[in-house]
What we know:
There is one protein chain. By secondary structure, this protein is mainly β. It has helices at about 1-20, 195-200, and strands spanning about 25-30, 40-45, 50, 55-60, 70-75, 80-85, 90-95, 110-115, 120-125, 130-135, 135-140, 145-155, 170-180, 185-190.
Amino acid sequence: MRIRLITTITLLLLSCNFTYGQKKFKVEVKETGTWRDIYCLIDEQGKVIRQLDTSKYYVSFNNDQYAYFAVFGKKGSSGWTAIDANENELFKVYNTSFGEPSPDYLIENKIRIVDVNENIGFANNKGEIIIKPQFKIATSFHKGKAIIGQTCKKVPWDAHAKESDCHHYSIICEKHGYINEKGDLLKIGNYSFDMIMKEIDWKMPDE
Length: 207
């Protein structure tokens, strides 16, 4: 009976911690008049959940809306980091423009994420990884479908530059196809991006 009681309490505590981590919050930026801003995570009651250590973060890419995660540039870490209300790191966010700071954002309740090998996957609006990173290229979703590419290589914009020298480049793939919202590969082959785009009537965000 004692073991069962301890187990029940432990499960309740874990449940509370998980629920709290899934709370919606927004980021409040306080300017200090210096190069360092103060970032606070605010719950839906307007209370401060926590103040972030500004020695860890250098920029915030968030609007003034409540969400289950926030995207930051984190010092000593490449790319963009998504955190929850408890400041747990959830995943790395895909950068949409090569050579420029432009983290992805939620489209159809999904955001592109990346792993250490720059493979692309997706997380949902609650910060849960729903399609693990596995694609070399992947568009955002439009009407439940996203275009993906396989057998890809980076091509620097400067014809005389090495890949390691150039921060601006295009990714050229030999094969293209598309997936559904579960990550199922519905089609792949020696098709161009434009061919797949026309087939599924895919459009850029805000078109």
